[in-house]
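Private note to self, pasted from the team thread so I don't lose it. Backbone tokens:
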């Protein structure tokens, strides 16, 4: 359908490949690193600082933008006559699936998108059944380090906790920005760290910081874990389902969570 596509977001790039349209991708951002083939595409800038000139030079038929793409640049590209489709940040697993189906429709890969979403929903449903009758421990999911930032109800990351059989201790907060003292007062049973820079040791550093607070139940129980932030913070339907399985096993280590 479209033979020349530019992606302005890492998740969009990943999903293009997942749908089997990687050969149509002619450009993406420096943060588009998955799958490895995405590294070989022309880089048009970062997520928020783009080169209009580079994008134009690629003669795209379709430009896929994210919620982080600066609106003035989207408007500029549209004024130049390019078709720009914007995908907002999903607020739930349902949103992730809806966005993926929309992308499949755009790329002429409707059947492939539907099959992947069905597979993801089946995995999620299996987790729901496995944890349905279990107690719901309190979970703190850390998605930012400086400042300390937690998953909140308006984010799809909250679904990892709730669908996985836990209670999000920060679920009722309007903003995810928190102080260490707030987390201590909420006393989570489990702390999951999924912060950018984990590959450079930030996750391990944050874990050491939490271990200095044995008054927190999760610390006393040895339940402070680091996860890959790329899986937690930028999921496709399938990576969401697989990450949910991982998190559900952390929430309920003794439960029969399906593979």
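Design output:
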């Amino acid at each position: 359908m479209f033979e020349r596509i530019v992606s302005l977001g890492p998740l969009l790039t990943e999903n293009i490949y997942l749908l089997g349209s990687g050969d149509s991708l002619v450009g993406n951002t420096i943060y588009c690193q998955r799958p490895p083939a995405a590294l070989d595409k022309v880089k048009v800038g970062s997520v928020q600082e783009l080169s209009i000139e580079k994008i134009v030079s690629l003669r795209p038929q379709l430009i896929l933008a994210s919620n982080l793409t600066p609106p003035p640049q989207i408007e500029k590209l549209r004024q130049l006559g390019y078709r720009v489709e914007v995908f907002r940040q999903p607020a739930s697993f349902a949103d992730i699936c809806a966005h993926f189906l929309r992308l499949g429709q755009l790329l002429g890969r409707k059947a492939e998108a539907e099959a992947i979403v069905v597979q993801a929903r089946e995995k999620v449903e299996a987790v729901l059944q496995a944890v349905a009758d279990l107690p719901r421990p309190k979970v703190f999911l850390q998605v930012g380090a400086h400042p300390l930032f937690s998953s909140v109800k308006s984010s799809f990351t909250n679904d990892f906790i709730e669908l996985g059989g836990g209670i999000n201790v920060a679920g009722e907060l309007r903003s995810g920005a928190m102080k260490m003292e707030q987390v201590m007062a909420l006393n989570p049973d489990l702390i999951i760290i999924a912060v950018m820079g984990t590959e450079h040791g930030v996750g391990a550093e944050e874990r050491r910081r939490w271990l200095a607070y044995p008054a927190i139940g999760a610390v006393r129980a040895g339940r402070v874990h680091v996860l890959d932030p790329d899986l937690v913070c930028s999921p496709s339907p399938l990576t969401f389902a697989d990450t949910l399985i991982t998190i559900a096993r952390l929430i309920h280590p003794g439960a029969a969570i399906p593979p």
